[in-house]
Amino acid sequence: MEAIVNGINSILWNYVLIYGLLGVGIFFTIRLGALQFLHFGEMIRVLTSSKSTDKRGITPFQALTVSLASRVGTGNLAGVAVALTLGGPGAIFWMWIVALVGMATAYSESTLAQLYKVTSSNGRFRGGPAFYMANALNAPWAGVIFSICLIVSFGLVFVAVQSNSIAEAFEGAFGLNKLIAGLALAAAAAVVIFGGIRTIARFAEIVVPLMAGLYLLLACVVVVLNLPQVPAMLWSIVAGAFGLQEAAGGVTGGVMAAALNGIKRGLFSNEAGMGSAPNIAAVATPAPHHPSSQGLVQAFGCFVDTILVATATALLILLSGAIEPDGATGMRLTQDAAAVHLGEIGRHFIAIAIVFFGFTSILGNYSYAENAMTFLKLEGKVPIYVLRLGCLAMVVWGAVQAVSTVFNFADAAMGVMATINLVAIVLLSGTVYKLTVDYFTQRRQNLEPRFVASKFPEFDKGVDHSVWTEEAYAETQRD
């Protein structure tokens, strides 16, 4: 079975998805007129002016922080280190490229999730790729497969991976027993998870900006302390990407190694096209009251994850000179780099950072799984409690076990759901284009963009008109 799964992963991640995710990002960048570059300021404006109080959903800022909680995890600390070890400094350049084109993909899938969201039996907004597959493409079978893969990979296995990284970091920095770390982590997660998605959102909007801000502050301090080395480091990133200089010692260099490792790590990190972030994007009440506004917010999340947080790790490592032949890699390399700059306190800082990054990733990943349960009509108390207990059990299990084998199964599940999602959003690209034109046409007329479904009869199929009416808009404006 493991050989079969590894074979599936080899095909999906080395051929189908690495080109599919990048190709779809380029496709939407061109079709939407380089929206992520020309309208970057609009992303900031939408995020900072969101004041919706509709109790059926969470705020756009909360949706952003929950999606960042899932995106910004161990991959930003350990994954970047692996990319540098295998691909050299040039890998970072290709991570940037993937993130920049991926912003268009992130915008598109979250815009669709907003358009096709529904009001669940408990009066809350729910939506995501499974919903637009079923409602817009009349392919409920695809939604079922997608939801099952999402629950297995994000709701169960990936939380074990995060807890494993946290336990290892604390054991290395403080000598804490892994089982104790796992139990403490599960207990802390239970307090938030049993409060549901709204509790997760309130927790994330406080913790995520704080943890990301502190980590970026550390990177800024390191850059200032090593300012004379910065120009040479930036040149090594560009030169390594195009083979203009020999790779650093100990790095399996070359243009192809830099491109492949940078692209893979970038795709894993920002999750654009995976179909994960749209699950929480659909839960938000958009402000302005238009599907595209939440798409813009999530595109900005893709930028924060890779261009800011992942780059911070790259700067930390490259300015330390800690990459050595047959030396440390992954989380150990990131900790060694921090120790070069700040002494042992740097190693401890990274251990604490991974707790916050990993813990919030567990919460974000769980929120996606709970949303998928709604699509499968399993939103009753018993199924949700089973999911929550299963998630917490995997937190404890992941802390004490080697998770490489089960992680391969999660990779396969995530690969399947990403492939289905990419096909769906390309088929619905015309809808994304019309929504984008409508949004920016209103903006050019100095109007607050507002989407009313009755004005777009071509969207009748699968759109919940109770969400997109003048009355629904008025509801979002009430205190």
Beta content comes to under 5%
Helix-strand makeup class:
mainly alpha
Q: How many discrete domains?
A: 1
Helix-strand sequence: HHHHHHEEHHHHHHHHHHHHHH
Tell me, what's the shape? globular
Instruction: Please give the radius of gyration in angstroms.
Output: 21 Å
Q: In this structure, how is the largest beta sheet organized?
A: 2 strands, antiparallel
The residue ranges in which pLDDT falls below 50 over 5 or more consecutive positions are 247-252
Major beta sheet, strand line-up? 1-2
Separation of the first and last Cα atoms: 55 Å
Mean pLDDT: 83
Count the DSSP helices.
20
Compute the number of strand runs: 2
**Percent helix:** over 70%
SSE layout:
Elements: H1 2-31, H2 35-38, H3 40-48, H4 60-71, H5 74-87, H6 90-115, E1 118-119, E2 125-126, H7 129-135, H8 140-174, H9 178-193, H10 196-225, H11 230-242, H12 255-270, H13 278-281, H14 291-318, H15 330-342, H16 344-375, H17 381-400, H18 404-427, H19 429-444, H20 470-476
Antiparallel strand pairs: 1-2
Written overview of the protein:
- The chain has 479 residues and is mainly alpha-helical.
- The protein has one domain.
- The chain is built from 20 helices and 2 strands.
- A two-stranded antiparallel ribbon has the order 1-2.
- Strand 1 and strand 2 form a beta hairpin.
- The radius of gyration is 21 Å and the shape is globular.
- It is found in: Cell inner membrane; Cell membrane.
- It is a multi-pass membrane protein.
- This is Amino-acid carrier protein AlsT.
- InterPro entries: Na/Ala_symport (IPR001463).
- Belongs to the alanine or glycine:cation symporter (AGCS) (TC 2.A.25) family.
